[in-house]
Amino acid sequence: MWAIPRIWDGGQCIIIGGGPSIVRQFDIPEDVMQAVRLKQVGADAYSPYLSPIHNCHVIAVNMAYKLGDWIDCVFFGDPSFLMKCQVEVLSWKGLRVTNSSSESTYQGRLKVVDRDDKKLGISEYPDKICWNLNSGGGAIDLAVHFGVKRIILLGFDMKVGEDGKSHWHKYYSPTETAIEFSMQSHIRCFSYIAEDLKGKVEVINCNPDSAITDFPRVNFKDITL
After folding, report:
1. Confidence (pTM)
2. I need a surface site. Which of 12, 25, 164, 171 has the fewest CB within 10 A?
3. Using one digit for the tens of pLDDT, what is the confidence trace for 127-162?
4. Which residues lie closer than 8 Å to 73 by C-beta, 6 or more apart?
């Protein structure tokens, strides 16, 4: 198993999730968003609009790694993610990290980290990550282990957008019932994470309308990188 190094000690990072609010935060045109969702173009069509964060430390949650080669790290905890895009992920040039024990056969091509029995919150052990019931929560724990003191969340909505969309892409096709169930489950971890990080690491959620209320919610344009 991989012992997580403090590669960004004292710095900050951005974590990109799957919520559709990222489109509004970066003023991505509707036609570009529709082209990505219809798979007429790749997710990297968003990349020019995300240029303000190209030089930042960035962790992509699941499919967000497709946004561009400027992303430093992809993190996933659900083994079904690798089943969807195994060849592409395993050949991706960035850091590939998982806390799914079923991926241990890929050690050498993936950085596999143990799951903490604690499950919710931030692990006290440098070689473990709390699963947090979702990869977004696990990615926050990973960022803390990288040593950052400030985390900026993008696409952490935990709610369906006004247009009825649950993601900025359409690489998944969940039913409405499945979406509701997963979000009710996933959102539970953030109060535990906030409590564990209080006074230690600043977390900012760049979606004023996010269902996650445990961190300050602001527009991306209102923060200083």
Report:
1. 0.93
2. 164
3. 999 999 999 999 999 999 999 999 999 999 988 766
4. 58, 59, 60, 94, 95, 96, 97, 142
